[in-house]
Amino acid sequence: MRRRSQGAGHGDGTRRVLVAIVTGLAICATATGCVRFPAPPSPPPVAFGVQPTPQGAEPDAAREPAPNSQTCDATVSLRPGPMPVPAQMPIRTTMADILGRGRLIVGLDIGSNLFSFRDPITGDIQGFDVDIARAISQAIFDDPNTIEYRVLSSAERTEALIDHSVDVVVKTMSITCDRLRDVAFSSPYYVASQRILSTRNSGIDGPAALAGKQVCAARGATSIGRIQSIAPRARMVTTTTWADCLVMMQQAQVDAVTTDDAILAGLAEQDPWMQLVGPSLGEEYYGVGIPKGQDDMVRFVNGVLQQLRVSGRWQQMYDRWLSILGPGNGPPPPVYRD
């Protein structure tokens, strides 16, 4: 009994101490004379925003020679022969091999707005270059849609023709003396002028303003060597596609883009803050790239292009896709060497 009484008294005492502590804390919370111990100051939260760089972008690109640094008759091509009936190609010809395979393999890209791009609503690949490819397919198969597209970067075009992984390249490919060592070309189907794309508030109005500026171009484009010769103090940044150049300029990672006016117009159409500036820096003649040694295919494609010129179809294609560049001067006249 004594132990039980002592244990009960000890428990009551503990409860009284706890009640006193809680009561004291409550009084202190409402009194003005209590000692307070503020929490140590905490630094404000810090966030670092890092702008993503497109995959494959390379700053400080190596210097390249200006296009056509050695003079040659680059745009002179083979005269077209009689055009065969569609779906009835002459035997033992490149066109017969393509017909037998059942599809035309075309190298292009899907990031060159106006020339070759994927429609965001339908998913179809379309544009001026695509219409050229469809005309070739129509002439072989009597069907403009018998095409397998292979997406290529600018730097991959020549190699795809050398290893015959494509039948033709229709991808804003300029005819140059350097490229003619490795591949063949049709007669020109379009003439472009190299210019500069900048933002409206950049102060860049021509090549002289590019000194010390970051200038973007797709790897493998002839525009790199030309701008390096005209504005040697420009700092070149190369990317895989022209769309990557647009993204980098929107993120202020580069100051300008330079290439052919038709490609730049397609970029500017996607962003109202972009504008083409300065004079023409040189002309570029686009041709259909064809594997070297396939003279029959060169003559055949030249026949297709001639039909587009004389029928008025070329002008219809221009009006649909490239009217943003103005009325234009019509298709470039072909020059043949035989």
UniProtKB/TrEMBL annotation:
Gene: glnH_3
Segments forming domain Solute-binding protein family 3/N-terminal: 103-325
A Pfam short name: SBP_bac_3
GO CC, alphabetical: extracellular region; outer membrane-bounded periplasmic space
PROSITE patterns reported for this sequence: PROKAR_LIPOPROTEIN
Protein name: ABC transporter glutamine-binding protein GlnH
Stretch list, region Disordered: 45-71
InterPro entries attached to this UniProt entry: Bact_solute-bind_prot3, Solute-binding_3/MltF_N
Domain of life: Bacteria
Any GO BP: amino acid transport
Family affiliation: Belongs to the bacterial solute-binding protein 3 family.
Gene3D superfamilies associated with the record: Periplasmic binding protein-like II (3.40.190.10)
Keywords: Signal, Transport
